[in-house]
Amino acid sequence: MSGSGSSPALGGATSDEDANTSPPLQPPNPSTSRRRLPPWHPDFTGPYRLPETEYHPSELQPPARRRPTSEGASDSARTKRSKSGASESESDRETSSQEEPGSGSDSSAHSSPAREPEMPLVPIWRNSKGKLVYGFTDDKAAVAKYRQDLRKYEEKLAQQEQLLTLKLPSKASGTNECYGSPKNKDMILNAAKSILSLSAYLDGKEINRCTGIVVNRDEDKKSLTILTSAWLICTEKPSNDWLDKEYAPQAKVIVHLPDGTTVDSQLMYFSKHYDVAFYEITGDLHLHSLPLEGNSEFGREAFVLVARDTNLDLIYREAKLASVGPCEFQHNHYKFITCSIPNKCGTGGGLLDSNGKIVGLLSYTFPLVAFIPSSLIMKCSALLRKLGKIVRPQLGLKLKTLDLLGMSCIEQLSHNFNISSGLVVREVSAGCVAERLGIRVGDVILSCQGESVSSIAQFEDILLRVGEEHLEKSNDLTCKVDVQVGVFNTRKCTRKLVTLKVKLSDGVEVFR
After folding, report:
1. What are the tens digits of pLDDT across the range 258-276?
2. Pick from 393, 424, 428: which is nearest to 410 by CA?
3. Domain assignment of residue 257, yes or no
4. How far apart are CA 320 and CA 234, in angstroms?
5. For the region Disordered, what residue ranges are annotated (predicted)?
6. Which residue, of 48, 117, 161, 343, is most buried by count of CB atoms within 10 Å of its CB?
7. Are 314 and 360 contained in the same domain?
């Protein structure tokens, strides 16, 4: 239609030429618009654009930015940018590109702040409330420049987020955990000086990776002893701990230090039954040793789990002792805590008591994390130094502590039979000596070698002493030893002493 026309949306008149070259100032109809992209979409190039004669510059208030920026722009600066035709953020980006590390610029120069570039927006219509609505200009060069600047801005943000003070902790390291108190923080930082990451390689291929703890320092030899899990060199570990496992003691083990450097290590010894291993590294290394605590009673106090993930980031968790025993597929000597570690790289980490001492070595199990009490590890370490090997009698019994029974059951045993502590037989290996001598599931082991027993760790300690005494007399592992146990027969409600003549072994106890 020719002739003059009016714009109800703006209240201003347009010329015939304007009417022919500019669309009416109404919201676009998705069913008829040439492009069905929203005006704020980066690929939107029109066609709705107002003639400059139909709005006043004071009405052009840019919309809110998509994300917070480090510094806002003042009205005066915005006015200055509109007059000069170049935004301040553009000049900042040019400076930034010249000051990136490695560009040869003066290292003392200030880095430019990260500011989001201004969108090349123009008003496209007024809405029903009379407010201007903005969209991208159809100036393709301006849009291309904006996208280029936006990419630079996103890259700068990504670099900024990697700063140590701004970097978000990984999920593995304890993002949702709190170290609780300044004392705990200092304890964790002190323990971190002894927590390392180890990786094992066979034929040039990594087979496992886990955590290790520096437990001893020899100043004369300039060597450090690292305690870790034998899972590190396990090439085939069945889900059942009572089955035989395959290990690769010849595997090359590299120790990853907290500063990112690595050092080769030498295998000293590993125990298949207890799944612990000792490695030695040498050199003038600034690492601390973390003492083992052998007298922890594992009450209701809180513990702290410490380990390292594959990025060498510290993993820490607050945990408590779980009132559960091992399942039928897990070793007797496992205890459990009420937390988790993200993956198997946490195996070999340490469980700290309130004094910052190691009370257990972690093992990745599902659904709860298991640990081996430090008292057992200390006994193994002592035997290793003294005799060069770790052996124990194999009884063929799966056990759990009587304390894990319900209080009602404990009260009845105490009242009716004067039994308040001991080890409950969960399973007996088929055809073993214990089975032939009448020990059955549900019976209670009250003593071993004349000593009352109330925990698995105490029972295992006695068995290790039996092995130690035998090795001191003879190095022959083919002969058998006598182990005397006091048994409460729950079916007949009687007590008896049973002597088990069993073999010694330095391997895993295979259960049938």
Report:
1. 888 999 999 999 998 999 9
2. 424
3. yes
4. 29
5. 1-123
6. 48
7. yes
> Any idea what DSSP says for residue 496?
E
Q: 96 and 124: one domain?
A: yes
HSE-CB for 340 with a 13 A CA cutoff:
9
In which region does residue 160 sit, left (phi positive, over 0), alpha (psi from -120 to 50) or beta (all else)? alpha
Half-sphere exposure of 226 (CA within 13 A, CB side): 33
Res. 161 pLDDT band, cuts 50 70 90: confident
Closest CA to 441 of 473, 494, 378, 399: 399
Q: How far apart are CA 87 and CA 361, in angstroms?
A: 59
**CA dist., res. 268 & res. 227, Å (int):** 10
Find the CATH number of the domain harbouring 404: 2.30.42.10
Q: Are residues 109 and 236 in the same domain?
A: no
Judged against a pLDDT cut of 50, whether residue 72 lies above it is answered with: no
Q: Provide the Cα torsion 444, 445, 451, 457; round to 10°.
A: -110
Range of the domain at 429: 391-505
* Contact in structure between 350 and 229 (CB atoms under 8 Å): no
The H or E element spanning position 305 is strand 302-308
Residue 190, beta-bridge partner list: none
Write out the two tokens for 431.
């055809």
Same domain, 210 and 322: yes
- Would residue 217 count as lying in a domain? yes
Domain boundary among 361, 389, 417: 389
Q: Judge contact between 197 and 213, C-beta under 8 A.
A: no
Strand partners, 253: 200
CB 286 within 8 A of CB 219: no
Whether 184 and 294 map to the same domain: the answer is yes
CATH code of the domain containing 346: 2.40.10.120
Nearest alpha-carbon partner for 228 in 186, 205, 256, 202: 256
Last residue of a domain, one of 137, 161, 185: 161
Contact present, 495 and 390 (Cβ < 8 Å): no
Query: Measured between alpha carbons, how far is residue 303 from residues 105, 346, 369 in Å?
Result: 50, 16, 13
- How crowded is the C-beta side of 300, counted as CA atoms within 13 Å? 0
Longest dimension (CA), the chain: 120
Indicate whether 366 and 436 sit together in one domain.
no
SS (H, E, C) 415-482: HHHCCCCCEEEEEECCCCHHHHCCCCCCCEEEEECCEECCCHHHHHHHHHHHHHHHHHHCCCCCCEEE
Does residue 512 lie within any of the structural domains? no
* Cα–Cα distance, 258 to 192 (Å, whole number): 8
175 in the same domain as 287: yes
Task: Give whichever of 77-81, 162-166, 292-296, 381-385 has the largest mean pLDDT.
Answer: 381-385
Whole-prediction pTM? 0.68
